[in-house]
């Protein structure tokens, strides 16, 4: 345990040294502020590092992560990140990125209790209920699992679009586009789910907030 802890401290020192060797002003420039063009909403899974997947440097991606990359309208953590990213940092893109093999999505497909996380997984189960006919029509379990990962990511993009934060930005003429991706753990590639929303015209009328 102590050896691992010492190792990560040593790794930090080496990273600092390597970064400064490439650019002596690296940290001085970072300390001046951030203007990332992108907010990434991803899964907490340790195998899905946002910056590395898209080849971004520190300062280029604002990140929020939770189990199964969910956009839950009562989650003040997510809403606070979204509000800051959209209204202060003025990001132009928000990507919801799920990943194949997601443990949260897998747990939502079953009935086993796994503790307090059951309360979070219930939101994922709600997404399954919305698409149960399509998902239950897929006989192969792995294919159904992969399809549910994709469906969940798409639904979270729509959940983003329904927020007053995003709709307020669109009403004010702010350039903001929402995207849905899925990352392949066994390939490293992302799949664009072709859910790219840039106005509330693409939502059902009941979700279009008119008094912002």
From TrEMBL:
Its cofactor is Zn(2+). Keywords: Lyase, Metal-binding, Zinc. Binds 1 zinc ion per subunit. It catalyses: hydrogencarbonate + H(+) = CO2 + H2O. One of its GO terms (biological process) is carbon utilization. Zn(2+) binds at residues 43, 45, 99, 102. GO terms for molecular function: carbonate dehydratase activity; zinc ion binding. SUPFAM superfamilies: beta-carbonic anhydrase, cab. It is an enzyme of class 4 (lyase). Its EC number is 4.2.1.1. InterPro entries: Carbonic_anhydrase, Carbonic_anhydrase_CS, Carbonic_anhydrase_sf. Belongs to the beta-class carbonic anhydrase family. NCBIfam families: PRK10437.1 (NF007756). PANTHER family: CARBONIC ANHYDRASE (PTHR11002). This is Carbonic anhydrase 2. The lineage of its organism: Bacteria, Pseudomonadati, Bacteroidota, Flavobacteriia, Flavobacteriales.
């Amino acid at each position: 345990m102590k050896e691992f802890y010492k190792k990560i401290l040593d790794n930090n020192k080496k990273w600092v040294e390597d970064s400064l060797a490439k650019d002596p002003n690296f940290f001085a420039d970072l300390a001046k502020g951030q203007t990332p063009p992108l907010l990434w909403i991803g899964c907490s899974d340790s195998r899905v590092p946002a910056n590395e997947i898209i080849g971004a440097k520190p300062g280029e991606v604002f990140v929020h992560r939770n189990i199964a990359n969910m956009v839950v309208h009562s989650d003040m953590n997510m809403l606070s990140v979204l509000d800051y990213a959209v209204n202060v940092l003025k990001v132009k893109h928000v990507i919801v990125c799920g990943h194949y093999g997601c443990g949260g999505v897998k747990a939502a497909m079953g009935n086993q209790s796994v503790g307090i996380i059951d309360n979070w997984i219930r939101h994922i189960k709600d997404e399954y209920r919305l698409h149960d006919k399509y998902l239950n029509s897929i006989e192969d379990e792995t294919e159904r699992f992969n399809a549910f990962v994709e469906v969940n990511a798409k639904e979270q993009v729509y959940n983003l679009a329904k927020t007053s934060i995003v709709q307020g930005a669109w009403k004010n003429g702010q350039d903001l586009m929402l995207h849905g991706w899925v990352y392949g753990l066994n390939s490293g590639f992302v799949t664009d789910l072709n859910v790219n929303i840039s106005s509330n015209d693409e939502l059902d009328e009941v979700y279009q907030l008119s008094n912002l």
